[in-house]
Amino acid sequence: MPDFALRTLGDQLINGLVIGNVYALIAIGLALIFGVANLINFAHGSVYMVGAYVGWVAVMWLGWPLAPTFVAVAVVCAALGVLIERFGLRHLQSQARIAPLLATIGISFALDQLVQIIFSPNPQAFSSPLPATRIALGGVSIGALDLLIAAITFAVAAVLFGFLRFTRLGWALRATAQDREAAQQMGVDVDGINALTFAVASVLGGIGGVMIGMYFTSVYPTMSYGAMLKGFAANLLGGLGSVPGAVVGGLLLGLIETFGVALLGSTYRNLFTFVILIGVLVLRPTGLFGARRALPPEPLTGTFVASSRPVRIPAWLVGAALVAAILLPFIATDPYLLQILTSAWLFGMLALSITLVTGAAGQMSLGQAGFLAIGGYASALLTMRLGLPVEASLLLGAVLAAALGTLLTWPVFRLRSQYVALATLGIGEVINQIILNWEDLTNGPLGLSNIPPLTFLGLPITQNVPIYWAALAVLAIAALFQWRLMQSHLGRTWRAMREDDVAARAFGISLNRYKALAFIASGLVAGLSGAFTAHMYSYINNETFAATTSILGLTMVILGGMGNLAGAVVGAIALTALPEVFRPLADARYLIYGIVLLLLVRFRPQGLLGTV
Amino acid sequence: MGMDGKALLEVRGLRREFGGVVAVDGVDLVAYEGETISVIGPNGAGKTTLFNLISGLDQPDAGEICLDGRPITGLPPEVLAARGLARTFQHGRVFGNLSVLDNVLIGAHTRQSAYRLRAPVVGMAAELLLALIQLPAWRAEQRRLREEALEVLALFGDRLLPRADQPAYSLSYANRRRTEIARALALRPRILLLDEPTAGMNPTETAELLEFIRALKQQGLTILLIEHKLSLVMQLSDRVIVMDDGRKIAEGRPEDVRDDPQVIEAYLGHGRRDPEVTDWKVQSEDRKLH
């Protein structure tokens, strides 16, 4: 705790309030969008990041003073917000609420990667043009930037309050938030209001980005993701969709985080966000100050499942494809190709696990990488610490992933639709944070190295071709496992629960039980994939199974067709192989994934092979 | 049949408020075994809320519900299903992407042996293994349920049977309603709650369903029916309960209730107490919906 000794309590307070101010700005934007469009906007963090980069270009390249910089940020971000609303989301209004949510994930992938391509993934130094002098106030020192951030936040909050309260446009916006159809009947241009909301929210996000960039003196493309989650944690804390709640929630989160970091160390910074996120969602979904009303109603289950007839794949074709895959190493000897396909088989297992829980059972899981991580770490540690044979540790790792993962996800079972997505994302991150911070067990950020290689009947498997076969075999077993389950009454029960959970309950289906069974079965498959990966690479750390992996897996599933086993494998092959086939695009793979996701949600929600 | 039978469902003083609006206000109801009771009343009278309370989808603020002499107040719907309570929904809630046959098989969910594996963790593990290993006994059970489900579909003649493998979303509206009833029957209910089963059906379809419900009644099934088409109510019901503004305003034999001045007032508003008007109302109601 040297950090704590160095800085006074007062400094921490100022620190927390300043950060909290920025969180509040982000949270206000998310609250506006949630209020008007009933949407958890995953692209908000990316807009914030774009704003930070625009500010950085203006100040560091063009040498602009602050005032025109902020104007430029506002203009660019407003335009970006309008574009996102107009071309990414507007035509998804009639679909389940999860569809625009997925679209915003796609947009966020694309924006992050675009900025990364233009400005490189490295952090860029960003020094504020403000004087560095600090004012001492009774033992507390306040910098010019601190004051600027506080002033801007309060000014923005005041202007926004006045706008919502006293202008006709503000009334129209609030009316749309309360009842979209009624507002439309009364002549409000609800599409225009939607676009306006995105513009205003994006300006707030962008300004927050610039200020955080100056505050931490750097900008980097991946700053988007954490900001979005913090904004949402703050928003939840104050009451989802409430603007004053967002301000209070932002300040509170900033304080909690700053004091928490001072007490426990900076690696714990994000843990607070995620614990708050999940805790509030589960225990008090209306937020600390929210009225005692239920979550906004969702139409039926609000799952992302399009009506379709799945393409029936005859058994002989599956057999032929399997034989071809087995024989491939004899024909194609390019080791690179085999490595890519091996990776496709492992992604295929991830996709299978997601297609079960999200496709068949209708629980939008964005935290599936957490299952991979538990499986990987468990299996690696079982061999390294307890000397278990790898064959046994793979299985045990899978079982542990299923058991621990399901236990951690249990609180989410009472949530529906968008909230499941947000909460599972949070749980995936909590698993990641535990791995990062439980150094005695996991070695922290250094990761585990010298993990014993895969073995088969005691013989190590280290060559490309045998590893390829082993991965293929494990994938085949996983697919067979899930096919059996889907053929049984479980498959029917899961799908019924997905289609209409109210009707399912009325016919004796206990939702908790079948959600748990879905997460257990899916955790087994994902855990096995993670365990296999750990032994194959012989090194893993907390970044091996990042949150983007979860979303990539989900994109594969949507590409293949929700709940469709063959579709999951086809989707995995396509998205793993595509960026490699077009080598020049390899750097832009997440741009491709983002655009694929966006296009699928818009034009082919049933995927290539159809929803099962 | 009727009052001399055993009371299957007893509802006493049931009350439910939604933010100050009393949707169901002190309703009493007794259904004897084998009886068909219709609940009628204008829109917003609280009929569907009453059904939701009885079937456990909603919890009452006050009052008591007993099924077969055992209190069921506050029990979740998944438990009530296993006790033999089945229902259909006002606006239809079929599982769109499931085949018609699978929809009906969901109705038989509580009758599977897997359903009896109730132990918290061990039960779930056992169910997973059961689904994975698919022992001959399990297969035989699934086959038997499948045949039963086909028999239920056959009750609707050739309306559903030829479409057994089609996804429910592809069905016509009337066929979706039939699928819902088939699903409810697959539960082998002791009491069946039908919420406006003929809504949106044309006269032929309505007449067909009337005969269908009459056949169920003759088999001794206890039925609670919400219905707006009064001619159907008059022909099917042993007893009619009239609700208005959350309260039960009348109860009795269909022909008595029809002539009750309070009922006429509830339907037609104040100042029109001429009993002959009821018939006009009955006809116009039918004409409007047909």
Structural features, described:
The complex is a heterodimer of chains A (612) and B (290). Chain A has 612 residues and is an all-alpha fold. Chain A has 2 domains: 281 residues, ABC transporter involved in vitamin B12 uptake, BtuC, CATH 1.10.3470; 208 residues, no CATH class. Chain A is built from 25 helices and 6 strands. In chain A, the strands form 3 sheets. Chain A has a two-stranded antiparallel sheet with strand order 1-4. Chain A has a two-stranded antiparallel sheet with strand order 2-3. In chain A, strands 5-6 form a two-stranded antiparallel sheet. In chain A, helix 2 crosses helix 10, helix 13 packs antiparallel against helix 19 and helix 14 packs across helix 23. Chain A is globular and about 70 Å long. The termini of chain A are far apart. Chain B is an alpha/beta fold and 290 residues long. Chain B is 41% helix and 21% strand. In chain B, the strands form 2 sheets. In chain B, strands 6-7-8-3-9-10 form a 6-stranded mixed β-sheet, with helices on both faces. In chain B, strands 2-1-4-5 form a 4-stranded antiparallel β-sheet, covered by helices on one side. In chain B, strand 4 and strand 5 form a beta hairpin. The chains are: A mainly alpha (612), B alpha/beta (290). At the A-B interface, helix 19, helix 20, helix 21 and helix 22 of A face helix 2, helix 3 and helix 4 of B.
Question: What topology emerges from the helices and strands here?
Answer:
The complex is a heterodimer of chains A (612) and B (290).
Chain A: H1 2-6, H2 9-37, H3 44-61, H4 66-89, H5 98-119, E1 124-125, E2 134-137, E3 140-143, H6 144-166, H7 168-178, H8 180-185, H9 190-215, E4 218-219, H10 223-238, H11 243-264, H12 269-283, H13 315-331, H14 335-360, H15 368-386, H16 390-409, H17 417-437, H18 439-442, E5 454-456, E6 459-461, H19 464-487, H20 489-499, H21 501-506, H22 511-537, H23 547-560, H24 565-581, H25 589-603
Helix pairs in contact in A: 2-6, 2-9, 2-10, 2-11, 3-4, 3-5, 3-9, 3-10, 4-9, 5-25, 6-7, 6-9, 7-9, 10-11, 10-12, 11-12, 12-17, 13-19, 14-19, 14-22, 14-23, 14-24, 15-16, 15-17, 15-22, 16-22, 19-22, 20-22, 23-24, 23-25
Chain B: E1 7-18, E2 21-32, E3 36-40, H1 47-54, E4 62-67, E5 70-71, H2 77-82, E6 85-87, H3 100-107, H4 120-133, H5 136-154, H6 173-186, E7 191-195, H7 203-218, E8 222-226, H8 230-236, E9 239-244, E10 247-252, H9 254-259, H10 261-268, H11 276-289
Parallel strand pairs in B: 3-8, 3-9, 6-7, 7-8
Antiparallel strand pairs in B: 1-2, 1-4, 4-5, 9-10
Helix pairs in contact in B: 3-6, 5-6
